[in-house]
Automatic annotation (TrEMBL):
It is found in: Membrane. It is a multi-pass membrane protein. Residues 26-448 form the Major facilitator superfamily (MFS) profile domain. The chain crosses the membrane at residues 30-52, 64-86, 98-121, 127-144, 156-177, 197-220, 273-293, 313-332, 344-363, 369-392. Keywords: Membrane, Transmembrane, Transmembrane helix, Transport. The keyword Transmembrane applies. CDD domains: MFS_SLC46_TetA_like. Its main location: membrane. GO terms for cellular component: membrane. This is Major facilitator superfamily (MFS) profile domain-containing protein. It comes from the Eukaryota. InterPro entries: MFS (IPR011701), MFS_dom (IPR020846), MFS_trans_sf (IPR036259).
Length: 448
């Protein structure tokens, strides 16, 4: 194998050739970057109802869910518009610049969202937060490139674990830290910034985490190759290129050239992206509706629980995802393969949703027990399907198109997630403030 001096991609390849072990430090760093990038996505859900209420934009209580849906959709809409562009930038200039820009802008716009005092400001900051968060596609390409092929399943599993835990821990942070002057008057007295901005504390905590991760990116190595394969002027360079052409990596790139020219015609890639979009649509609709259903009144078909209860359920779910993805998922995929695993988990997830409306008829302590179990199973089914789609996507393309392919997947997934909250909040058949007697909650779960 020939390595070019000064090429960061070759330096990574050399390190992988010299060390056959799992790169735990790199995996942990990637895990933290993915986690912090996902925290703002869903941290607003536990308090979004109260935030829209405080904006005084909804004329009636029934309209709050309608306006809340557009706030949730604005992030995904912004990300959908720019994800392919960020993927192309990552393939051209490297993974690290895109990751750093995504973390820095996330820090800025997430902080501004917590300071929102008007509906338009909340919409704008969420849209910009999504538009500049272009690192989810490149980070999936990065994790494949930083490890040996036999460790890629573990790496992608950790990425999807961090992604899923971010969507779980985010609402937990929002649920516990929103309106601190009301919940913790001794720690946060009145006439402070947290009374004027009751939803700032949760955003501030996430932004501090952003800042720490941003500093750690100083030690993040680049994985993209900076040299080019081309005919040269002298015999020595021709000899060097011939040696490179004989290498296994160059053969892979040469054999995949047809795929690189027509990425939309790559059926294995597109089919895995379609799977990713469907699962993401289901996940986003569920993530949006679940807190509203749990917090709504019993007479409306909800569970009459508080935002603290939502945060506790989601925190427990996040802990089980970490254990499942670390110790159980790799063995399942090794035994069944990503395709069969995805089929089983998707069918099981759909069957589980049918049972949700009946949970509203339970009383404590069975209510809490069943709700936690259902939430854990649902989340792990989703994260399994997502991780399998990541494996299929990254195995369908070579390095020079990998970030673009993941950016395309993120774009289409973001459109799916943008439709989910706006559609399910905006449609009155799924609005939580309509009577349960008419079968409205059943309508949601059967539709989902």
């Amino acid at each position: 194998m020939v390595y070019f001096e000064g090429c960061p991609g070759c330096a990574i390849d050399r390190r992988k050739a010299e060390s056959t072990g799992i790169p735990y430090k790199s995996f942990f760093h990637i895990w933290m970057i993915t986690l912090v990038s996902c925290l703002p996505i869903s941290s607003l859900y536990p308090f979004l109802y109260f935030m829209i209420r405080d904006f005084h934009i909804a004329k009636t209580v029934e309209d709050i869910g309608f306006y809340a849906g557009f706030v949730g959709a604005s992030y995904m809409f912004g990300r959908a518009l720019t994800s392919i562009l960020w993927g192309m930038v990552a393939d051209r200039f490297g993974r690290k610049p895109v990751i750093v820009v995504g973390i820095f802008t996330g820090l800025v716009f997430n902080t501004l969202f917590g300071l929102s005092v008007h509906y338009w400001m909340a919409i704008a900051t969420r849209f910009l937060l999504g538009s500049f968060n272009g690192l989810l596609g490149p980070i999936r390409a990065y994790v494949v490139e930083v490890c040996r092929p036999e460790h890629q399943a573990i790496g992608l599993s950790l990425v999807s674990t961090a992604w899923a835990m971010g969507l779980i821990i985010g609402p937990a942070i929002g649920g516990y830290l929103a309106q601190p002057t009301e919940k913790y008057p001794k720690l946060f007295p009145t006439k402070t910034i947290f009374e004027r901005f009751p939803y700032f504390l949760s955003s501030l905590c996430i932004s501090i985490f952003y800042f720490i991760i941003l500093l750690s990116c100083v030690w993040l190595p680049e994985t993209l190759h900076s040299h080019k394969y081309k005919s040269t002027e002298d015999q020595s360079n021709e000899s060097l290129i011939q040696q490179l052409a004989d290498s296994e990596d160059f053969d892979e790139q040469k054999n995949s050239s047809s795929t690189n020219k027509s990425i939309l015609k790559n059926w294995p890639l597109m089919s895995s992206i379609i799977l990713f979009c469907i699962v993401s649509f289901d996940d986003m609709a569920y993530t949006e509706i679940f807190p509203l259903w749990v917090e709504s009144e019993r007479r409306l078909g909800g569970l009459s629980l508080s935002s603290d209860d939502v945060g506790q359920v989601l925190a427990i779910t996040g802990a089980t995802i970490l254990l499942y993805q670390t110790f159980v998922y790799p063995h399942i995929v090794k035994l069944l393969g990503p395709i069969i695993t995805t089929r089983i988990m998707t069918i099981f997830s759909m069957a589980l949703l049918i049972t949700y409306p009946f949970i509203a008829h339970l009383l404590e302590p069975w209510l809490s027990i069943v709700l936690n179990i259902a939430s854990m199973i649902k989340a792990n089914c989703i994260v399994t399907a997502v991780t399998c789609s990541f494996i299929l996507q990254n195995n369908s393309v070579s390095q020079e198109q990998r970030a673009t392919a993941n950016g395309l997947a993120t774009t289409l997934m973001s459109f799916s997630k943008a439709i989910a909250p706006a559609g399910f909040h905006g449609h009155k058949s799924t609005n939580m403030y309509y009577s349960f007697k008419g079968g409205k909650w059943y309508s949601y779960f059967w539709t989902l």
